[in-house]
Specification:
heterotrimer, A mainly alpha, B mainly alpha, C alpha+beta, A: MetI-like fold, C: alpha+beta, Rossmann fold, six-stranded mixed sheet, five-stranded antiparallel sheet, 9 helices, 27% helix, globular
Chain lengths: 280, 277, 342
């Protein structure tokens, strides 16, 4: 029987050093603190846990967080797709600036986006005032949360979908055209299905980011318990009340959700690679 | 382009895209500066040069300056291990490196409180030796490290994977030792990607809010970073002050975007030219 | 369908891909556009398909069965087009790829689901891939993908079939099988076809007629026999097979002029005796008998390298080995006017 080996033979040096350092650093900075949280949660009884993590106020926060995140991710999927399409397919005046500005939500600190969106959408703001006349309140409502989450999620969709559009083989479109497909048929039957995996992962990433978002939301949300209180804020509130157990229990539920999404993203990437991966 | 979208489709889509970006991105960016100067340049300057602002700036830069080299070293080591060797658990390692991106910033702060807070065994022991971590500068540095953890590694790993190890193997066969191989062969080819990762990590380090907020304790002049200072000023109804500090961060964000684009342009050219220079 | 191209030009920036090309393609024929890369053959094919438009110049005209095509309207025409890299739809199965052209037809022309199934089944058996209808393109070999691409193009019953380097990305063996299969298919279903290739063997084996292109112009057109045996220019002769070059001084009409004489390796003969008639003296540098014919390399006294090909039995009869002094006699050769220098 062949001996079981940890790694394949390589003439390059440094395996022990780099893997050792990587594992140590990863353990200290990421895994150990996560384990500390987990051990705190596992020291709770089931009753304690459910009381902390599934009370009415916490459930309401899950609901508003998930629904607002879903809505924002959907809006981003639609508009992010259009932005990505325009950036890849068309050249227009200011194209370079538009391409660069898409990264603004990545670069702008969330506290800054939080206060400026609040200023814009509060009843006296640039957008808030005309909307108020129409009877629409954005700041300090669920809509405000959605606006903030659209802001921070947009680049995820654009930056995931744009490379996929760029990778589309122009011959695919020409082939569909030669076979008699109209432009719309080509788009809906050939291009969109080919872009769907990228769009799905962009959507999922924007959604995952929105679930955990804190800084840009808390200013505009109004944070009314049972209504516009997001889960991340609730964790901070519990911490400020020195209720570490409740904070940990809620965090554990959130982490489980995030990791499930991470797995989903990996699964989409993997499926994209396996079924349609090699060039056809 | 023959067979492309019709002109009316093109104009419609560009109008939608520009309208959406204008409302969602450009208006907020402009509003930051307009609000900051709402009471004139004098008020702006007073807020920016306020001692509390300067001390927040100092702490922000300190945390970023500590995080950058640690991230760079970790990113290089992780990328070398994950792309130059084939070993069991390799894909698990890559997934774990990305893990901090899946964690809410608030939870990133919370896990350090759970590990090092004054009521935990480890935190109590450190406290007994006079070392404060949570509600002090070390906590802020740790939280910053956590949220910027994957940036460099995730830029380097795909690039080094794509480049393959042929060049390094050639160098080793020619008699170079590991350090020479890394310095003379690998590093020149990944230099731009390394800088790119550091720029992204740095932007996040300076702008991080949630994680730092949880571990900071909000002590003005002691554990206040610039984003936290924005919050404090805003909650004190000092809107002009909050936006003045915010405008500093926005300027930094614009510089980040500029540097990122310049690098992307060079990276693309390098890739088209076939080498990593 | 007859295709008539008149005075077609196409330039990309400063580069002239097609320079005033006129060409007739007749109903049911299989024409090969043959030429090196950059000769304009693919551009011409794409213009026929409507994937590209010729430069707007006076006299530029394309007619299909006499009806003039409007060159100002962009967009692909309904033709069967087989792309070099197949351009199969990755998100669809083989079946759905082939059915695509039927499914996107306007409602009143579209066959019912049963009709589509029958038609696709016919095509699958035509390309001998009945068993893999449910697979995705990424799960097929290169040769299978190529056949699926062909079936997909044929599904809409096009009156023109255009093939752009259809076998370019395949292994030598698969390529040979597929081009014989394509020839048989065309004999069975004579759709007017235009094939672009840079492989002279492929063109000679498959086509009814060959159009040799060079630098955006048609160099010569004719049957495979015509272009191979009666090349009109040195370029055509060089491009269609191996050629030996001899430098010679003319006698008679052009006394004193230098010229180049071209001879195919199988039109040369090697012997130990000088014999009668003009011959070139040389030494055998290498003998290579692994292959369809024996190949003998001879270095002439003038320092030129000559390749001679002969049948194996002939080679055995004379029994020449490397190092021997020999005479090379030219049985058949060609001189082109363009090669004169005074």
């Amino acid at each position: 029987m062949a001996p079981i080996r940890l790694k394949r033979y390589s003439i390059l040096p440094g395996f022990g050093l780099t893997l050792g350092y990587t594992s140590l650093y990863l353990s200290l900075i990421v895994l150990l603190p996560l384990a500390a949280l987990a051990s705190g949660v596992f020291s709770m009884t089931w009753a304690e846990f459910t009381r902390a993590a599934f009370s009415a106020r916490v459930m309401a926060s899950y609901k508003v967080t998930v629904l607002a995140s879903l809505a924002a991710a959907l809006i981003n999927a639609v508009f992010g797709f259009i932005v990505a399409w325009c950036l890849v397919r068309y050249r227009f005046p200011g194209w370079r600036v538009v391409d660069a500005i898409v990264d603004l939500p990545f670069a702008l600190p969330t506290a800054v986006s939080g206060i400026v969106l609040t200023a814009l959408y509060s009843p006296g703001g640039w957008f808030g005032a005309p909307l108020a006349k129409l009877g629409v309140k954005v700041a300090y409502t669920e809509l405000g949360i959605v606006v903030a989450l659209v802001f921070i999620g947009l680049p995820f969709v654009v930056r995931t979908v744009a490379p996929a559009i760029e990778d589309l083989d122009p011959e695919i479109e020409q082939a569909a055209g030669c076979l008699g497909a109209s432009r719309w048929q080509t788009f809906s039957k050939v291009l969109l299905p080919a872009l769907m995996p990228a769009l799905t992962s962009g959507f999922t990433m924007a959604f995952a980011r929105a679930l955990g978002e804190y800084g840009s939301v808390i200013f505009i949300a109004g944070n009314r318990p049972m209504k516009t209180e997001i889960t991340a804020l609730l964790i901070v509130t519990k911490l400020e009340q020195f209720d570490y157990k409740a904070a940990s229990a809620i965090a554990a539920v959130m982490l489980a959700g995030s990791f499930a999404l991470l797995l989903a993203i990996n699964y989409f990437e993997w499926r994209r690679g396996s079924r349609h991966g090699s060039t056809a | 382009m023959r067979g492309g979208d019709a002109a009316w489709v093109r104009y419609l889509l560009i109008t939608i895209a520009l309208g959406f970006l204008g409302v969602m991105l450009v208006a907020p960016l402009a509003a930051v500066f307009i609000e900051a100067f709402a009471k004139g340049a004098g008020a702006y300057w007073r807020n920016v040069t306020d001692p509390a602002t300067l001390s927040a700036l100092r702490l922000t830069l300190t945390a970023a300056a500590i995080a950058a080299p640690l991230n760079a070293v970790f990113g290089l080591a992780a990328a070398w291990a994950a792309t130059r060797f084939d070993f069991k658990g390799r894909s698990l390692l890559i997934t774990l490196i990305d893990l901090p991106f899946a964690v809410s910033p608030v939870i990133a702060g919370l896990i350090y409180v759970a590990l090092l807070g004054s009521r935990t065994p480890l935190g109590g022991w450190l406290g007994g030796m006079g070392i404060e971590v949570i509600f002090a500068t070390p906590g802020i540095v740790l939280a910053t490290l956590f949220v910027t953890f994957p940036f460099v590694a995730r830029e380097l790993i795909p690039l080094m994977q794509e480049q393959g190890s042929d060049d390094e193997q050639a160098a080793v066969v020619l008699g170079a030792d590991g350090w020479q191989t890394f310095r003379l062969v690998t590093l020149p080819r990944i230099r731009l990607a390394l800088v790119y990762g550091l720029i992204l990590a740095n932007a996040r380090a300076i702008g991080e809010f949630g994680a730092v907020s949880v571990v900071s304790g909000h002590i003005r002049g002691l554990t206040n970073t610039l984003p936290l200072h924005v919050e404090i000023l805003y909650n004190e109804y000092n809107s002009v002050g909050a936006f003045a500090v915010a405008s500093l961060l926005a300027l930094f964000a614009l510089a980040t975007i500029g540097a990122k684009n310049a690098l992307e342009w060079r990276l693309r050219r390098a890739r088209e030219g076939g080498n990593g220079q | 369908m007859n295709i008539s191209l008149e005075r077609i030009s196409r330039s990309f920036g400063g580069f002239t891909a097609l320079d005033d090309v006129s060409l007739e393609i007749r109903e049911g024929e299989l024409v090969a556009l043959l030429g090196p890369s950059g000769s304009g053959k693919t551009t011409l094919l794409r213009i026929i398909a409507g994937l590209d438009a010729p430069d707007a110049r006076a006299g530029a005209r394309i007619r299909f069965d006499g009806a003039e095509a409007d060159l100002s309207v962009p967009g692909p025409r309904h033709v069967g087009f087989v792309f070099q890299h197949y351009a199969l739809f990755r998100t669809m199965t083989v079946f759905e790829n082939i059915a695509f052209g039927l499914r996107v037809k306007p409602k009143r022309e579209r066959p019912g689901e049963a009709g589509i199934r029958t038609r696709v089944a016919e095509l699958l058996s035509l390309i001998q891939l009945d068993s893999i209808a449910g697979r995705y393109p990424s799960q097929l070999s290169g040769g299978q993908r190529q056949r699926v691409a062909l079936a997909r193009a044929l599904a809409i019953e096009p009156r023109i079939l255009l093939l752009d380097e259809p076998f370019g990305a395949l292994d030598a063996k698969v390529r040979q099988d597929l081009r014989r299969w394509l020839r048989r298919l065309h004999d069975k279903m004579p759709v007017t076809s235009v094939l672009v290739t840079h492989d002279q063997e492929e063109a000679l084996e498959v086509a009814d007629r060959i159009v040799v292109m060079r630098a955006g112009k048609v160099e010569q057109e004719g049957t495979p026999e015509e272009v191979f045996h009666h090349p009109k220019t040195a370029f055509v002769m060089d491009f269609l097979g191996n050629v030996n070059l001899f430098h010679a001084r003319m006698e008679g009409g052009h006394t004193g002029a230098m010229t180049q004489v071209r001879a195919r390796p199988h039109d040369l003969e090697v012997s130990r005796e000088e014999g009668s008639g003009p011959a070139v003296r040389g030494r055998v540098t290498r003998v290579q008998t692994a292959g369809a014919a024996a190949k003998i390399e001879v270095a002439t006294e003038g320092g030129e390298a000559i390749m001679v090909e002969m049948a194996h039995d002939r080679f055995k009869a004379i029994g020449i080995a490397a190092g021997e002094a020999v005479f090379v006699r030219v049985k058949d050769a060609r001189v082109f006017v363009e090669d004169y220098t005074i």
